[in-house]
Design brief:
alpha/beta; 6-stranded parallel β-sheet; about 220 residues; about 10% strand; 8 helices
Length: about 220
Protein backbone atom coordinates (compact mmCIF):
# COMPACT_ATOMS: atom_id res chain seq x y z
CA UNK A 1 0.00 0.00 0.00
CA UNK A 2 1.23 3.47 -0.81
CA UNK A 3 2.01 5.68 2.17
CA UNK A 4 4.54 8.23 0.89
CA UNK A 5 4.32 10.54 -2.15
CA UNK A 6 7.36 12.62 -3.06
CA UNK A 7 7.61 15.65 -5.34
CA UNK A 8 10.61 17.02 -7.16
CA UNK A 9 10.75 20.85 -7.10
CA UNK A 10 12.26 22.34 -10.26
CA UNK A 11 10.11 21.58 -13.29
CA UNK A 12 7.61 19.59 -11.23
CA UNK A 13 6.20 21.67 -8.38
CA UNK A 14 6.90 24.77 -10.46
CA UNK A 15 7.92 25.33 -14.07
CA UNK A 16 11.16 27.18 -13.40
CA UNK A 17 13.58 25.38 -15.70
CA UNK A 18 13.39 28.37 -18.05
CA UNK A 19 14.53 30.57 -15.15
CA UNK A 20 17.45 28.25 -14.37
CA UNK A 21 18.46 28.25 -18.04
CA UNK A 22 18.28 32.05 -18.19
CA UNK A 23 20.27 32.46 -14.98
CA UNK A 24 22.94 29.97 -16.04
CA UNK A 25 23.31 31.60 -19.45
CA UNK A 26 23.61 35.12 -18.04
CA UNK A 27 26.12 34.13 -15.36
CA UNK A 28 28.17 32.06 -17.82
CA UNK A 29 28.36 34.95 -20.27
CA UNK A 30 29.50 37.27 -17.49
CA UNK A 31 32.78 35.33 -17.17
CA UNK A 32 33.31 34.46 -20.83
CA UNK A 33 31.43 31.18 -21.43
CA UNK A 34 29.50 31.82 -24.64
CA UNK A 35 28.12 28.88 -26.61
CA UNK A 36 26.35 25.57 -25.99
CA UNK A 37 26.23 25.07 -22.21
CA UNK A 38 24.61 21.60 -22.44
CA UNK A 39 21.66 22.91 -20.43
CA UNK A 40 19.28 20.10 -21.41
CA UNK A 41 21.63 17.40 -20.15
CA UNK A 42 21.93 19.06 -16.74
CA UNK A 43 18.18 19.38 -16.11
CA UNK A 44 17.57 17.51 -12.85
CA UNK A 45 21.30 17.12 -12.23
CA UNK A 46 23.81 18.84 -9.95
CA UNK A 47 24.20 22.59 -10.41
CA UNK A 48 27.73 22.34 -9.01
CA UNK A 49 28.65 19.70 -11.59
CA UNK A 50 27.11 21.94 -14.26
CA UNK A 51 29.35 24.86 -13.35
CA UNK A 52 32.45 22.65 -13.13
CA UNK A 53 31.55 21.33 -16.60
CA UNK A 54 31.18 24.85 -18.03
CA UNK A 55 34.54 25.97 -16.63
CA UNK A 56 36.28 22.90 -18.05
CA UNK A 57 34.48 22.96 -21.42
CA UNK A 58 35.39 26.60 -22.14
CA UNK A 59 38.86 26.41 -20.62
CA UNK A 60 38.12 29.21 -18.19
CA UNK A 61 40.07 30.30 -15.11
CA UNK A 62 39.05 28.67 -11.84
CA UNK A 63 35.84 30.08 -10.40
CA UNK A 64 34.18 29.96 -6.97
CA UNK A 65 31.52 27.36 -7.77
CA UNK A 66 29.60 27.93 -4.55
CA UNK A 67 29.32 31.59 -5.46
CA UNK A 68 28.09 30.72 -8.96
CA UNK A 69 25.41 28.42 -7.51
CA UNK A 70 24.31 31.10 -5.03
CA UNK A 71 24.07 33.64 -7.86
CA UNK A 72 22.02 31.17 -9.90
CA UNK A 73 19.51 30.47 -7.12
CA UNK A 74 19.11 34.17 -6.34
CA UNK A 75 18.41 35.00 -9.98
CA UNK A 76 15.97 32.10 -10.41
CA UNK A 77 13.96 33.14 -7.35
CA UNK A 78 13.94 36.72 -8.69
CA UNK A 79 12.85 35.72 -12.21
CA UNK A 80 10.11 33.39 -10.93
CA UNK A 81 8.61 36.05 -8.69
CA UNK A 82 8.88 38.78 -11.33
CA UNK A 83 7.06 36.53 -13.81
CA UNK A 84 4.47 35.58 -11.16
CA UNK A 85 5.15 31.98 -12.15
CA UNK A 86 2.35 29.77 -10.77
CA UNK A 87 2.57 26.34 -9.20
CA UNK A 88 2.09 23.31 -11.42
CA UNK A 89 -1.60 23.25 -12.37
CA UNK A 90 -3.76 21.80 -9.57
CA UNK A 91 -0.78 21.10 -7.33
CA UNK A 92 -2.45 22.46 -4.19
CA UNK A 93 -5.56 20.38 -4.87
CA UNK A 94 -3.46 17.24 -5.14
CA UNK A 95 -1.52 18.04 -1.95
CA UNK A 96 -4.77 18.64 -0.06
CA UNK A 97 -6.17 15.33 -1.35
CA UNK A 98 -3.06 13.50 -0.15
CA UNK A 99 -3.17 15.14 3.27
CA UNK A 100 -6.88 14.43 3.68
CA UNK A 101 -6.34 10.78 2.82
CA UNK A 102 -3.47 10.19 5.24
CA UNK A 103 -0.48 10.13 2.90
CA UNK A 104 2.91 11.46 3.93
CA UNK A 105 4.12 14.09 1.46
CA UNK A 106 7.72 15.05 0.76
CA UNK A 107 9.56 17.57 -1.37
CA UNK A 108 12.83 16.12 -2.69
CA UNK A 109 15.13 18.59 -4.41
CA UNK A 110 18.77 18.68 -5.38
CA UNK A 111 18.68 22.44 -4.82
CA UNK A 112 19.92 24.14 -1.64
CA UNK A 113 17.50 24.34 1.30
CA UNK A 114 17.30 28.14 1.27
CA UNK A 115 16.15 28.11 -2.35
CA UNK A 116 13.64 25.31 -1.76
CA UNK A 117 12.13 27.17 1.19
CA UNK A 118 11.98 30.42 -0.80
CA UNK A 119 10.08 28.81 -3.67
CA UNK A 120 7.67 26.84 -1.48
CA UNK A 121 6.94 29.90 0.62
CA UNK A 122 6.40 31.98 -2.53
CA UNK A 123 3.85 29.38 -3.72
CA UNK A 124 2.25 29.09 -0.28
CA UNK A 125 2.62 25.30 -0.08
CA UNK A 126 5.49 24.86 2.40
CA UNK A 127 3.12 23.67 5.16
CA UNK A 128 1.61 21.01 2.89
CA UNK A 129 4.80 18.93 2.96
CA UNK A 130 5.58 16.65 5.90
CA UNK A 131 9.16 15.92 4.83
CA UNK A 132 11.77 18.05 3.10
CA UNK A 133 14.97 16.68 1.58
CA UNK A 134 17.42 18.99 -0.17
CA UNK A 135 21.03 19.11 -1.33
CA UNK A 136 21.93 19.91 2.27
CA UNK A 137 20.78 16.42 3.36
CA UNK A 138 22.50 14.20 0.78
CA UNK A 139 25.95 13.23 -0.41
CA UNK A 140 25.09 12.32 -4.01
CA UNK A 141 22.51 13.88 -6.31
CA UNK A 142 20.24 12.41 -8.98
CA UNK A 143 20.40 10.02 -10.78
CA UNK A 144 21.94 8.55 -7.63
CA UNK A 145 19.06 7.33 -5.38
CA UNK A 146 20.47 8.97 -2.23
CA UNK A 147 17.87 11.75 -2.05
CA UNK A 148 15.00 9.24 -2.15
CA UNK A 149 16.62 6.89 0.32
CA UNK A 150 16.95 9.85 2.70
CA UNK A 151 13.28 10.74 2.12
CA UNK A 152 12.30 7.20 3.06
CA UNK A 153 14.42 7.40 6.20
CA UNK A 154 13.05 10.81 7.23
CA UNK A 155 9.47 9.62 6.64
CA UNK A 156 10.02 6.21 8.24
CA UNK A 157 8.47 4.56 5.17
CA UNK A 158 10.12 1.96 2.94
CA UNK A 159 10.47 2.43 -0.81
CA UNK A 160 7.97 -0.33 -1.56
CA UNK A 161 5.30 1.92 -0.04
CA UNK A 162 6.40 5.06 -1.87
CA UNK A 163 5.79 6.85 -5.15
CA UNK A 164 7.53 9.91 -6.56
CA UNK A 165 6.75 12.41 -9.30
CA UNK A 166 9.59 13.82 -11.39
CA UNK A 167 10.07 15.84 -14.58
CA UNK A 168 13.54 14.61 -15.55
CA UNK A 169 15.29 11.52 -16.85
CA UNK A 170 17.74 11.56 -13.95
CA UNK A 171 14.94 11.97 -11.42
CA UNK A 172 13.01 8.96 -12.70
CA UNK A 173 16.19 6.88 -12.64
CA UNK A 174 16.82 7.95 -9.04
CA UNK A 175 13.30 6.88 -8.02
CA UNK A 176 13.67 3.50 -9.71
CA UNK A 177 17.04 2.92 -8.07
CA UNK A 178 15.53 3.75 -4.67
CA UNK A 179 12.90 1.02 -5.08
CA UNK A 180 10.02 3.48 -5.51
CA UNK A 181 7.34 3.79 -8.17
CA UNK A 182 8.18 6.61 -10.55
CA UNK A 183 5.79 9.05 -12.22
CA UNK A 184 6.95 11.24 -15.09
CA UNK A 185 5.31 14.67 -15.28
CA UNK A 186 4.89 16.05 -18.82
CA UNK A 187 3.26 19.36 -17.80
CA UNK A 188 0.73 18.96 -20.61
CA UNK A 189 3.45 18.15 -23.11
CA UNK A 190 5.67 21.16 -22.34
CA UNK A 191 8.37 19.04 -20.72
CA UNK A 192 10.94 17.86 -23.33
CA UNK A 193 12.72 15.37 -21.05
CA UNK A 194 12.82 11.63 -21.81
CA UNK A 195 10.49 10.04 -19.25
CA UNK A 196 10.54 6.54 -20.71
CA UNK A 197 12.06 5.15 -17.48
CA UNK A 198 8.96 6.16 -15.48
CA UNK A 199 6.41 3.57 -14.35
CA UNK A 200 3.59 6.02 -15.07
CA UNK A 201 3.21 9.23 -17.05
CA UNK A 202 0.91 12.12 -16.10
CA UNK A 203 0.12 15.35 -17.92
CA UNK A 204 -1.33 17.18 -14.89
CA UNK A 205 -1.04 16.82 -11.13
CA UNK A 206 -4.60 15.60 -10.70
CA UNK A 207 -3.88 12.73 -13.11
CA UNK A 208 -1.95 11.22 -10.21
CA UNK A 209 -5.08 10.63 -8.11
CA UNK A 210 -6.59 7.80 -10.21
CA UNK A 211 -3.16 6.18 -10.44
CA UNK A 212 -2.79 6.21 -6.66
CA UNK A 213 -6.33 4.91 -6.15
CA UNK A 214 -5.78 2.11 -8.68
CA UNK A 215 -2.52 1.05 -7.02
CA UNK A 216 -4.25 0.98 -3.62
CA UNK A 217 -7.15 -1.10 -4.95
CA UNK A 218 -4.78 -3.58 -6.57
CA UNK A 219 -2.91 -4.03 -3.28
CA UNK A 220 -5.94 -4.53 -1.02
Amino acid sequence: MLKLVTFDLDGTIIDDEWAHARAKTEIARSFGAVGDLDLEYYVGRSNRLFWAHVIEKFGLPEQDIENLVSQQFALVAKYVQEAKQPEAPRLTELLNYLKQNGYTTAVTSGSDVSFVDAILEYLGVLDLFDVKVTKNDVHAVKPDPDIYLVAQRFAGIEGCHALGIEDSTSGCLALNRAGMLSVGFTDNGKNPQDLSQADYIVDTMLDLIPIIERIQMENK
